[in-house]
Amino acid sequence: MNIVTILGSGTSTGIPILGCNCEVCNSTNPANSRLRTSVFLTTALGKNILVDTTPDLRFQLLTHKPDSIDAVIMTHDHADHTHGIDDLRPFSFYQKKDLPLYCSPETAESLRRKFDYIFNPKPVIGGGIPQLKLIEIPFAPFAIEQEEFEFFSLPHGRIQTTGFRHRSLAYLIDCHDVPDELCEKLNNHPLDWLIIDCVKPDPHDTHLGFDKTIEIIKKIQPKQAGLIHMGHEWDHDQLQLRLQRNGLFEAVPLKDGDILQYR
Questions:
Q1: Separation in Å, CA 66 to CA 41, 94, 223
Q2: How many other C-beta atoms lie within 10 A of the C-beta of residue 192?
Q3: All structural domains of the chain with their residue ranges
Q4: Rounded Cα gap, residues 96 and 101, in angstroms
Q5: For position 254, what pLDDT does the model report?
Q6: CA distance 1 to 42
Q7: How are strands ordered across the β-sheet holding 2-8?
Q8: For residues 173 and 160, what is the distance between their CA atoms, to the nearest angstrom?
Q9: Which CATH class is domain 2-262?
Q10: What is the pLDDT of residues 74-117, one digit of tens each?
């Protein structure tokens, strides 16, 4: 079996939001405490693949304690998905090799610009930088660490983000829509788990709101669906109840630390 660990399930600010006194941000329910969204795949072949490097990455990795990272997938260049990149440094040092980082050509261009000290280093005295190798992915079946992935381009406001399928897991994050042809493709490839964006109860310009999320789940028809990238508008238990009231008993709001299995 393959395993996906939910390192973080929250939005760009994390939950609780600094300075916010709303009911969810003050909740004592651990399920309402959400680090910024990232997941960690452990494949049946024993490979460890990190998806996104959030500003919370150090805490996430200290919590889950992986002994290695074989590859990183970056879904897009926004700060809440990239600004923990420097915490990859010890893994590249201890593993004594460049750590491959896979992303779209547009994301690669942005990362080279934002993190030029990593990807275009100049001679310096002292310190160190993560040893990373940028690899641009095609939007087609593609092998990472002997595992076949299929990547998809998704609309996220004015940019495109990268979703993927690995075996019977699909990951559709940071998008405001999912094209019908992709829904049909995923429907034709039975999924054990669909992990999908659901930022707010209402429609949103750059993310999926609740109605759009459940519409897409019903089109794809996975065995199970996990909602992720949730803002402080969502109380965990109330969202679970709302899913059930809409007949989605196979769908759950994901929590930080959840561990899912898929074939």
A1: 11, 13, 28
A2: 17
A3: 2-262
A4: 15
A5: 98
A6: 9
A7: 132-136, 99-103, 71-73, 48-51, 38-42, 2-8, 259-262
A8: 11
A9: alpha beta
A10: 999 999 999 999 999 999 888 888 999 999 999 999 999 999 99
